[in-house]
Amino acid sequence: MTTARELMTPDCECVRASDTVLDAARKMADLHIGALPICGENLRLKGMLTDRDIVVKVVAQQKDPLGIKAGDLAEGTPVLVNADDDVSTVLHLMADHQIRRLPVIENNELVGIIAQADIARALKHKVAGKTIEAISQEEGDR
């Protein structure tokens, strides 16, 4: 049985909820990534911040990236998986919520992240392909 722990990239970076959007964007650029978990104290997950969030909610709205905190862009309850959950749970969550990155927690703390690419590398082509297709569907296609 493959678990989330086996699929995840461990020790992923976070952006603090109190960090500015500019700090988050710089961190993404430095790490060559397009998303960061937003963490509060003790690595507790508050949400996810993507480069698209920054463009659509800050840049396109002509807001000051120094005046907006990363936590201000967190919306709703984050979708996450427990480290010991089975791969089928991971696939189900990513497909149902159409998300490309899934934070992994253990004892309520962030321990890793599973990206769409992790799924593609770890699973058989047919299973990975179906999951990626489900994640990428347009809302009207469902």
List keywords for this structure.
single chain; 142 residues; alpha/beta; 6 helices
Question: What does it look like?
Answer:
- By secondary structure, the protein is an alpha/beta fold.
- Helix content is about 40%, strand content about 20%.
- It has helices at about 5, 20-30, 50-60, 85-95, 115-120, 125-135, and strands at about 10, 15, 35-40, 45-50, 80, 100-105, 110-115.
- The strands form two sheets. Strands 1-7-6-5 form a four-stranded mixed β-sheet. It has a three-stranded mixed β-sheet with strand order 2-3-4.
- Strand 6 and strand 7 (about 110-115) form a beta hairpin.
- Helix 5 runs antiparallel to helix 6.
- It is globular, with a radius of gyration of 15 Å.
- The chain starts with a helix and ends in a 6-residue tail after the last helix.
Per DSSP, the total helix count is 6
Percent in strands:
15-25%
> Which structural class do you get from the secondary structure elements?
alpha/beta
Spatial strand arrangement across the major sheet: 1-7-6-5
Averaged pLDDT, please? Answer: 86
Order of helices and strands: HEEHEEHEHEEHH
Radius of gyration: 15 Å
**Poorly predicted sequence stretches spanning 5 or more consecutive residues:** none
Count of β-strands: 7
User: Which overall shape is indicated by the principal axes computed on the Cα atoms?
Assistant: globular
Considering DSSP H and I runs of 4 or more, what fraction of the residues is helical?
Answer: 25-40%
Measured between the Cα atoms of the first and last residue, the distance is 29 Å
Looking at how many chains there are and whether they match, the oligomeric state comes to single chain
Give a short account of the largest sheet: 4 strands, mixed
